[in-house]
From TrEMBL:
PANTHER family: AMINO ACID TRANSPORTER, AMINO ACID TRANSPORTER TRANSMEMBRANE DOMAIN-CONTAINING PROTEIN. This is Proton-coupled amino acid transporter 1-like isoform X1. GO terms for molecular function: L-alanine transmembrane transporter activity; L-proline transmembrane transporter activity. GO terms for cellular component: vacuolar membrane. Residues 88-112 are annotated as: Disordered. Keywords: Membrane, Transmembrane, Transmembrane helix. Pfam families: Aa_trans (PF01490). The chain crosses the membrane at residues 149-172, 213-232, 266-282, 289-309, 329-349, 361-389, 409-436, 448-465, 471-491, 528-554. It comes from Petromyzon marinus. It is a multi-pass membrane protein. The keyword Zinc-finger does not apply. The keyword Transmembrane helix applies.
Length: 576
């Protein structure tokens, strides 16, 4: 049987995983042209830089292809008898987009979980690292927006909902992996396959669209983090430099003594730009690993010092509000969900655990630590600094004390390295698209140019919105709310709806196994309608926060004046 006939046979069963040499004009190239013109519309094309002469073409539908089914076709294409994951160009586990930690790529389905696994402790550390960042330092201001009573309560509720959505995503991924006989799935892959096998037929042909939406939100989140990092570093460096040059001992946020040295924070961003561009040229994260470890130590040390200062400087008379202004609640939502948006790292971490069965325990422990950290720092920071709390709590520390100046420097160094890690994800998705369109001799130059342009874009956006709290709220409202609150509940409905409607629930079909995770699906009608109602409420709240948070953030950026609240909602909130 010719490769084209085997390809047709596989596609008739909804199975296709085709690797094509783009520099070949023989039979392989003819297969590529035939597949491009075939009636199947969901043939997604992704280009990778390594190796530059290869193209990866992936179409997986309801009955996902297994390795044995693909062997004959791969033998014809590559002349190999035992094709493994390592033999496929561009499909090693460290390649961009292939089940990497960015949460965007999708596993090839040809490897197994035993490779590159992590222990329980290692995964827990990675989880904590992925959830604790600059969003933590903005929580005191977020609590101020909501009030000393409302803020902590909302943080706890948001943490519970975030854990439920993370577990929902993992549960859907496990179910689809068993149903499609795949070892792992990433966030985008889970959404894509859930839509393709859904009972809602109008979704079946839109799986690639769903995956692209997830990728778009993940890229927006990563580049949003980079914008936040620019503003954070500029704010803290500006404060230290102007204290040293002017010798002032005023409170945080001072522009400099009269007649002293004062420079706009945008100029500090421009000064940082060349160094960050050089950092973005690092295309192997292993080179950043030692610096990343050092950055983690710097940030941990800084957090300990911050806690020490706040716990020893609580004023006798508190300058706080117990219930915040109604028009500030959307800003609280955006800043809080920005801090809690760690759902993008959940599946990559779970997929690489040595014992994935213990991930639920790990998730509970990790989120308990994260929630306690957020609650304590957010509440303590607002109690300590009151109405004068700044967008980053580091800016409230005394600027005339060497110890607290070191906190700003150490945290800025840590964030500088973190920029390289966060930027890597977006760059490895966007740059190959342009690299594949130029001759091989220009590919390195185009790749570096794309990275430099992306860094300049994040810097320009940060300069346009040089207010740390508003950048955090905007990024959180737009992308974090979608990834963490809106999509997971809807994904559960799309994934489990046919099983909820089937007598006996999931776990008793021909292609599934009874497991604790599937018992949720074996429910009575009133139970699954209750779950559907809960999911609809969570998605609606997330969407409302998305709209309100984005609107308020943009209005505050364009015209920072009090927003009109319809009706007497604000007055009624204060009465409560």
């Amino acid at each position: 049987m010719s490769p084209a006939k085997k390809l047709h046979h596989l596609m008739a069963g909804g199975q296709l995983l085709l690797l094509v040499k783009t520099d070949s004009h023989n039979g392989i190239w003819e297969i590529s042209q035939w597949a491009r013109g075939c009636p199947t519309r969901n043939v997604a094309e992704t280009r990778f830089q390594v190796p530059p002469q290869m193209m990866y073409r992936d179409k997986v539908s309801a009955a996902c292809a297994e390795r044995e089914a693909l062997s004959p076709l791969l033998q014809d294409v590559y002349g190999a008898t035992n094709v493994s994951e390592g033999d496929l160009p561009g499909l090693d586990s460290d390649s961009p987009g292939m089940d990497s930690d960015d949460g965007v790529g999708e596993g090839s389905g040809l490897g197994n979980r035993g490779e590159h696994t992590t222990t329980f402790a290692q995964t827990l550390l990675h989880f904590l690292k992925g959830n604790v960042g600059t969003g933590l330092l903005g929580l005191p201001l977020a609590v101020k927006h909501a009030g000393l009573v409302v803020g902590p309560v909302c943080l706890v509720v948001m943490a519970i909902v975030a854990v439920d959505c993370m577990l929902t995503l993992v549960r859907c991924s496990h179910y689809l992996c068993r149903k499609l006989k795949r070892p792992t799935l990433c966030y985008g892959g889970t959404v894509m396959h859930a839509m393709e096998v859904s009972n809602f037929t109008w979704l079946n042909s839109k799986g690639s669209w769903g995956k692209n939406v997830i990728s778009l939100f993940l890229i927006t989140t990563q580049l949003g983090f980079c914008c936040v990092y620019f503003v954070f570093m500029a704010d803290n460096i500006k404060q230290v430099v102007e204290q040293r040059t002017n010798g002032t001992s005023e409170s945080a946020g001072e522009e400099g003594a009269p007649g002293g040295f004062a420079m706009d924070k945008r100029l500090y961003m421009l000064c940082l730009l060349p160094f960050i561009i050089l950092l973005s040229f690092v295309k192997n994260l292993r080179w950043l690993a030692p610096f990343s470890a050092l950055a983690n130590v710097c940030m941990l040390t800084s957090i300990i010092i911050i806690y020490y200062y706040m716990s020893t400087n609580i004023p006798k008379k508190l300058d706080v509000k117990y219930v915040g202004e109604a028009n500030a609640l959307p800003l609280f939502f955006g800043m809080a969900i920005f801090a809690f948006e760690g759902i993008g790292v959940v599946l990559p971490l779970e997929n690489r655990m040595r014992d994935p069965g213990s991930f639920k325990l790990l998730l509970g422990m990790g989120m308990l630590v994260v929630t306690l950290l957020y609650l304590s720092l957010g509440t303590l920071g607002y109690v300590c600094f009151g109405s004068k709390v700044m967008p980053s709590v580091t800016l409230n520390l005394p600027i005339s004390n060497g110890l607290y100046e070191s906190v700003k420097i150490l945290f800025s160094l840590g964030i500088f390295v973190s920029y390289g890690v966060q930027f890597y994800v977006a760059a490895e998705i966007i740059a190959p698209f342009f690299v594949a369109k130029v001759p091989r001799r220009w590919q390195l130059s185009v790749d570096l140019l794309c990275r430099a342009v992306l860094v300049c874009i994040t810097c320009a956006l940060a300069m346009l919105i040089p207010k740390l709290d508003l950048v955090i709220a905007l990024v959180g409202s737009i992308s974090s709310s979608a990834l963490a609150l809106i999509i997971p509940p809807l994904l559960e409905i799309v994934t489990f709806w046919p099983e909820w409607r089937r007598q006996g629930g999931a776990g008793r079909g021909e292609d599934t196994e009874q497991s604790t995770a599937e018992l949720k699906s074996a429910m009575r009608p009133w139970q699954y309608w209750l779950v559907i109602g809960k999911n609809c409420v969570v998605s609606f709240v997330g969407f409302a926060g998305f709209v309100a948070g984005t609107y308020v953030s943009i209005v505050e950026i364009v015209a920072p004046e009090p927003l009109p609240i319809p009706g007497n909602f604000s007055r009624h909130l204060h009465v409560l």
